[in-house]
Amino acid sequence: MSAGRKFEIKNHLSVDDLNSIIKDSKIQSKICQRAIFVKMLLQGSTITTASKAVGVQRQTGAEWLKRYNDEGYTGLIPKFAGGKPGKLSKNQKMELKNILIDKNSNYTIIEVVKLIKELFDVEFSYNRVWTLVRVEFGLNYSKPFSIAHKKPKNRREVLKKN
Length: 162
What we know:
Blueprint: H1 15-42, H2 47-54, H3 58-71, H4 90-101, H5 109-120, H6 126-136, H7 155-159
């Protein structure tokens, strides 16, 4: 146990397993929210009242009702469209990451913005590049320092005070 922790935890599941469970639970909670909405409608509530009760806009409630009427229970299951495709492909992201993890390179976020523009002709904001580098690539700031390649053999004597 580390300092400050006053409890023991057994490692039954990996972090990836827990992330999967959390993702599934989020989907299940969305289904539950929609089922409560439908139940309220079946019990006589209006779309507006049922929508407010589950914390969504009336239009969203109306869309849920239409999907439920068309598809039944499967209409309650969220359908994630995936969103807009990214400006950089997976290969381009890997190429950029390989450039950034090179031990001989020290880039600031501003320099990475310029690098992306030069290499891929894509413009990103500072915040987007920060998220890409720090969150998606998992890279941290590092302080560059010089390494003395030519150390004198008598360096200790040279540094001693007489």
